[in-house]
Design goal:
Blueprint (H helix, E strand, L loop, with lengths): L5 E3 L7 H7 L9 H11 L2 E9 L2 E13 L3 E6 L9 E2 L5 H14 L4 E4 L13 E9 L4 H6 L3 H13 L2 E5 L2 H17 L7 H12 L4 E8 L2 E11 L2 E9 L8 H15 L4 E7 L4 H8 L4 E11 L4 E3 L8 H7 L3 H11 L5
Parallel strand pairs: 4-6, 11-12
Antiparallel strand pairs: 1-2, 2-3, 3-4, 3-5, 6-13, 7-12, 7-13, 8-9, 9-10, 10-11, 13-14
Helix pairs in contact: 2-7, 5-8
């Protein structure tokens, strides 16, 4: 490892978030808030490789060590994070940092590394899988952004408004619990176990209570019918989770929720709203995100096998025979499955 590159600890550095904030490549997912959520919820150990020079971050490639009897011991940058770009500048390039990570991983007996972005890797490195990312530039303001939407997106917003759907923003435990209630149902419909309760407890404590996120809920006739969770840091916001009651999909409440977030973030001076990753085969979600006038880019995930000393190709997929099993599981058992299994999927 380069002598200047060491293992940094975001959980034990009171100046950490200020360092991230001052770097143009900084993002919410590099903050101590997200590190505390991951470490506190799943027992992951932070291994953030980087360099602090003159009090500022000169390089950073964050990893969490995941030690699982089901999926092996590995370094992930970062678990449950759609995109995690490394910070590089000056003399410390991504190759220099990655070389140090590989050396450490071998000593720590990791089986492999996972990179949730390969910005700066050589062009001939084959990704493990690829997704689409969408980022909306908020600087033109809400009025201009409305004109830049697809006609169908504007119509869906108006449909929700005419139907009497209302939206409210919350940062309270009650608002997050209401989202979780819908999230259980939505995850079951997708054939996936939900995040464990401790994750949302930590999310409330380290994100919402710290003013780094919000929950937007849509209501119809007194009932909550859809909700989304957003995180933000500096001038960048991210759409992180969404859930809805399928019985009310015709109301297009999700469109009204997203528009509320866009208007709010634009009015508050945020520069961008990242809508997260989308798998290429999820055409419905792709069309939803493209309707907002976003810029579209590829997100490449990489997997480096430390035993063969090589990047390997594969395919990231959340579908399979297990999805049908989870889809028909009673909610209490599904939630238990999430509590037992979720940390192993990091």
């Amino acid at each position: 490892m380069n002598d200047d590159i060491g293992i940094l600890d975001p959980l034990d550095d009171p100046a950490w978030d200020d360092r991230v904030l001052r770097h143009e490549q900084g993002s919410f997912f590099l903050t101590s808030s997200w590190a505390r959520v991951l470490a506190g919820s799943y027992g992951y150990q932070p291994r953030y490789f980087g360099e602090v020079r003159n009090g500022a971050l000169a390089a950073l490639m964050p990893f969490m060590e995941v030690d699982s009897i089901l999926t092996g011991k590995r370094g992930v940058s970062l678990p449950f994070t759609d995109q995690c770009d490394p910070i590089t500048c000056g003399g410390a390039g991504i190759g220099t940092v990655l070389g140090g990570v590989i050396d450490h991983g071998k000593r720590a007996r990791w089986n492999y590394l996972e990179l949730r972005s390969g910005t700066g890797l050589a062009d001939d490195v084959q990704p493990f899988t690829s997704c689409f990312g969408h980022v909306l530039d908020l600087t033109p303001g809400a009025e201009a952004l409305s004109r830049g939407m697809r006609d169908s997106t504007r119509r869906n917003i108006r449909r929700a408004q005419r139907a009497g759907v209302t939206v409210a923003v919350s940062t309270t435990p009650g608002g997050l619990r209401e989202f979780c209630r819908m999230n259980w149902q939505t995850r079951r419909e997708h054939g996936l176990p939900p995040q464990p309760a401790c994750f949302f407890d930590n999310f409330q404590r380290h994100v919402l209570d710290e003013g780094r996120g919000m929950v937007v809920l849509a209501s119809y006739n007194g009932s909550t019918v859809a909700g989304s969770v957003y995180v933000h840091f500096g001038k960048k916001a991210v759409y992180k989770y969404g859930a809805s009651d399928r019985r009310y999909q015709h109301l297009r409440a999700n469109n009204l929720i997203m528009w509320e977030a866009i208007e709010r973030y634009a009015a508050d001076g945020y520069a961008s709203l990242d809508l997260g990753r989308t798998e290429p085969e999820n055409d419905g979600l792709l069309q939803f995100k493209r309707g907002w006038g976003c810029g579209e880019h590829r997100i490449n995930y990489y997997k480096y096998d430390l035993r063969s000393d090589a990047f390997v190709a594969g395919r990231l997929s959340v579908s399979g025979a297990h999805t049908a099993f989870f889809r028909h599981m009673p909610l209490p058992l599904l939630r238990l499955a999430g509590t037992l299994l979720y940390r192993h999927a990091g």
